[in-house]
Each structure stands twice: as structure tokens, then as C-alpha cells.
Here is the input.
Amino acid sequence: MAAVLSAGPVTAARARRRHRLRVLAFMSPWLVGFSLFFAYPLAATVYFSFFRYNLFQLTPVGLTNYKFLFKDPYAWTAIKNTLWLVAVMVPLRVLFGLGLAQLLSKIKRGGNILRSIFYLPFLIPPVAATVAFVFVVNPGTGPINGIFAKVGIHLPDWFNDPTWTKPGLTLLALWGIGDVMIILLAALLDVPKTLYEAAAIDGANAWQQFRQITLPTISPVLMFSAVTGVIQTLQYFTQAMVAAHVSQGNADQAGTTTAPGYPDGASLTFPQTLYNEGFQQFNMGYACVLALVLFVVAMFFTLILLRRFHAFGDDD
Amino acid sequence: MTGTTLAVRPSAVGSPLRPGIRRRRGRRFLYWTATHAIAIALAIMFLAPLIFMFLTAVMSSDQTLTGALWPSSWHWGNFWKALTTDDGVMLRWLGNTLIYAVLATVFMLISSVPVAYALARFRFRGRKLAFVLVITTMMLPPQVTIVPMYILWARFHLTGTLWPLILPLLFGDAFSIFLLRQFLLTIPKEYTDAARVDGCGEFRAMIRVILPMARPAIAAVALFQFFYAWNDYFGPLIYTKPETWTLAVGLSTFRAAHHVEWNLTMAATLLTVLPVIVVFFLAQRVFIQGVTLTGVKG
Here is the structure.
């Protein structure tokens, strides 16, 4: 470095100051951004949570907003739905992504085309993917249920039936498996070939090789996919909102449905209650309480990820 | 492949091992057939919704309500109709989306590249903390800070415009910083050292030496940012009004505005998807390398 090359304490001090200024200059966009768009709003969220605020009137209400959380039926429906998605959608996505990646890793010719096909739905704008998917599986309009009925399988009315709405959303999420699949495929291809060869000589069958070699080697990546999957599912908003919107069909403007979480609250996720409270009812104070709940839970999972920090390839 | 090499091994020729090898070859063939059959079946299922979408888009509006598979007559004009319906409202959404996506991408690059460079190259106190905070902001849901952000933008009288979505990108995007830093760490330090010995300032060294080498990563974050904006629903839903709606928000209202005209809804949906598919096939490698970079090293 420059500081090492130059002799004398005066020039060394100057070099250090120049270095500090340089770091500051390069980092400045983020320093401003972090303070203005993260630190400040986070503190403000805590502050506003003690007020009733509708953009015009700011009234201090103490812990009322927090107490209301325990009585709010919408919030609890939303928490249950979001937990359902975390418990079902996330593991299924990781398993399905692993299955597809494993399948692709075995295919030599045409593997690239298949990989693109499996990856493609992930890139489709979520609103477009949801509109299309809801239409296609709607028994009244789309062909899917008709095709299955011909072979004697009767599929439900997915997005109009409260019991089948979340499974329908899960299917939609499995269609967009591309991100998980690509990361796991890269991990699978990274497993040293010599390990498999050694195992084959020892007479291990395919399942034993998978159990003893593949799984342990890719487990950090599996865990990365699972934890980021949980965090993504906590903010699951667009697909649930648009699915309700499209299947209900009589919504009047963007983002509103006559009853939130159509059908019967089945698609109401946690971020949606936050949106409804904050930006439909303008209960900004209470929306801040919901935001803090989301923050605490998401932070918990982010910390799990950060504890495996070395996995990001940090050099010290 | 290993099957063939096994078969020509001298020890296997004419020995009692032979039937065993034939059996193993048979099993291998079965395995090969099964894997390919499953993969192709799945590929068809993955493409099916897109194909049905297309077939519906060219149907007559009456036929879309029958659950039919194949169009009885082909109405190619539906795409044009979807674009020009309601005085070309879709074109306005497209214009808004392009403003958002292009400006967001340019701003993100200007602000995030130096930060990623500093995190990858400089040693300074708080560097590790800064990186941890970058990952944290990348992970946390955008809904956590949305209420005060909305209040802030409302105070600047910018709600209803696209600016609350675009301006923050002048101040670095956590995901892009993270991805760029990961890539920059893979470029040996010697390159910038050489540039510095040649009398380049740090900034010049970054622009002249490192950026050309980091082109794949820069292309990846630019594409991701562009598509993030193109696909974003939550942000525009909060901040925009009908005049400034983007395609994502507009499309979600399309179905309600055209009650039974599923063909137009599907045509509009397909028009929204098409640019993404085209760009993906043109820049496939960039995408897949970029996604892989976000994953941890095994």
C-alpha cells in the first residue's frame, strides 16, 4: 500500500487520512442510504407504534396498538396463513428444487434446454404469473381441471375454495422454483467427483451415495435456501393479493378486494394485513406494530443466516 | 458411458461376469429412460400454463368462458386490442414501467459499484459491520419500514409519482452491493496494485481496471435490478396513482376492468411477460451465473 512505501510519520499520517477520506467517499452512497432508508424509518416505526396516526392527526395512545394486536381477528388469521405457508411451501420448494436439480445433474444431452425451461417461470412477473395461473386452474375457464377430469381426477376449484387456496398458491410457488433449483444445481455440480468414485468402489448404491456424500456436502446451501425461503415467505404478498383479486373478479381498484383474503380469509397473509391497516384504513400506528412483529421474526431468521457468515466467503 | 468402458475390459470378456454386466447395462438404460421421461414430462408441465395463456389470448371472448383448450378461430388482433383498449392505457403503464426500470438500474449502478468496491478492496474499521448491515437490509422485508417511508415521501409531496421508487437507488442497493462484492473478491488484488503503481488514483483504477473485468457481475446486477423494477408490485401499489401505475399494478386491475374478456387479459399478460422471456434467452448465461453467485459456496 502507499502508506507502507512512504517513509516518515508525517506522510504516514497524511496517507492514513487520505485513506480514510477515500473509504468515506466510496462508502458515502450507502451510508446515506442506510441512515435515510433503513435506520431512520426503523426508529420511526417504533415511534409511530405508540400513536394513532392517519397522516393528519397524531395522537399518543400508549400501548393501545400493541394490545389491539391480540384482539385483531384479521391479524391472527394472517399469522396462521403465513405460518401455514412457511411450514408447507418452504420445505416443498426446497425438496422440489433439490429433486429438479438432482434430475438435471444426471442429464447430459439437452440439459441446458431443460434447465432454461425449469428456470423460466421464476422470471415471469409475479402479477402476470398469478393472473395466468389462476385462470388456467379455474375450472370454469381454464383447461387444466377439464384435462384431469377426462382421466378421472377431479381437481378442486382452487382459488375459490378456502381449503384449496393455500395449496393452490403453493403449486404456483413450485412452478416458480427456478431460483432454488439453480442454486442447488450449482451446489450439486460442485461436489467433487472423486468422492462418488471412492464410494462406488466401496460398493455404495445410489441412495447411500446421496445420503452419505451429496447431502452432507450441499447442506450449507440447502440451509441457505431454506432460511432465505422462510424470509421470502414472511413477506409473501403479491401472489396472494393478486390471486384473491383475480378470482374474486369484482375488485374495483388496485390492491383492494371487497373482503381481504378472498375466499374467506384463506389468502390473507401477514404483509397484507399490514397493507390493509396502513394504506387502506390509514391506521398507520397499528400498521407500525404489525411491521415490528414482521421485523422481529424476519430478524431472527436473518441472524441464523448471519451466524453462518463464513459461508458467504468473507476473507477474515 | 462407464458401462461401455466396463464392457471392453479384458477381464469381462467371456467370463462369468458377462450376464451381470448385461443386467447392469439394462438397468442403466432403464434408469436413463426414466430420468429423461420424468424430465420431459415436467418440462411440458412447466410450459403448459404459458401455452394455455397464449391459446386463450387468441380466442374469441365467448370461447374463453368455455374452458376450451384450442381456439376455434384465431384472433391475432387481440394483442393489438389489449394494447390500445381504454385509450392505450397499457402503453402508458409500459412507459411508466420503463421510466422506473431504466432510471432505477442506472442509479443503482452509479451508487452501488463504489460501495461494493470499497467493501471488497479497502481495509477499514467497521468494514465487517457494514457488510453485515448490507446483508441484513437485503434480507429484511420491505414492509418493515414502509409506513415511515410513505410518511416521509408524502411530506415531500412525492407520493403519487414514481420518484419514491427510483430515488432510493441513488443511495446503493443492498442486493447489488452484496453480489458485486462477492464477485470483486474473486479478482486478484495485483491488478489494481499494478494500476496504482502506474500512477492511477483509486477511482481511476476501479473504472479502468476492475470494472471491465467485473462486466459479467455488473450485467447480472443491472438485469436483476431492471427485472425487479419491471416485476415490482408492492412498491408501485403503495406509491403510484392510476396515472403513474406500472404494468404490474395495471395488469392486476385489467381483469376487473374487462370482466369476461379473458382473451384480452391473457393477451395483456403475455405482452407483459414477453420482454422478460426475450431478454432471458438473450442473456441466459448472465442470469444463471448471477443467481449462482448469490448462493453460498458449498
Q: What stands out?
A: Residues 187 and 214 of chain B are 8 Å apart (CA to CA). The longest helix of chain B spans residues 77-121. Confidence is low (pLDDT under 50) at residues 1-16 of chain B.
